Amino acid sequence: MKPAARSFAAVFFLGLVLGGLIGAWCQRSALRHSRQRPFNAERVFKRFDRELKFDEEQKSAVKAIIHGHGVKLDALQGETAAAFDAVRQALRAEIKAQLKDPEQLKRFAAMEARWEARRVTRSAGLR
C-alpha cells in the first residue's frame, strides 16, 4: 500500500472512531437530560405559537390546555420515577441476598454508594 493511501486510511478510520464516540456521547447526554427535565409548558406553547401563529383568543385557550396537561404529565413522570425506584431496590435486594462472602457484601455496598451518588448528582442537574 502506498504511503498516501495508508495515511488516508488511518485518517479515515480515526475520523470514523471519533465520530462514533462523539455521537454516542451526544445521544447519551440528550437522553440523560430528557429524562430529568420537568415539563415546561411555556416552552411547548412558544413552539406551537411559532409554527401556528395563534391569534390572542387561541393563545389563551392553548396555554390553558398545555398547562392543564402539563400538570398531568409531571404527575405521571413522578409516578414512573417512583415505580422505577421500587424495581431498582428490589433488584438490588435480590442480588444482595445471593452474596455470601463478606468481601462481596462490602464491594456491593461500595457499588451502591457510587450508584446513589451518581443518581443524586444527575437528578440535581450536575455532572
Kindly describe this structure.
This protein has 127 residues and is an all-alpha fold. It has helices spanning 3-36, 41-52, 56-98, 102-123. Helix 2 (41-52) packs across helix 3 (56-98). The relative contact order is 0.05. The model has no long low-confidence stretch (mean pLDDT 84).
Topology:
Blueprint: H1 3-36, H2 41-52, H3 56-98, H4 102-123
Helix pairs in contact: 2-3
- The fraction of residues in strands falls at under 5%
Distance between the termini: 45 Å
Q: Count helical runs.
A: 4
- Based on CA atoms alone, the radius of gyration comes out at 24 Å
Order of helices and strands: HHHH
The number of E-state strands comes to 0
Structural class: mainly alpha
Which stretches are poorly predicted, pLDDT < 50 over at least 5 residues? none
Instruction: Write down the overall mean pLDDT.
Output: 84
Largest sheet: none
What proportion of the residues is helical, as a percent range? over 70%
Q: Choose one word for the global shape.
A: flat
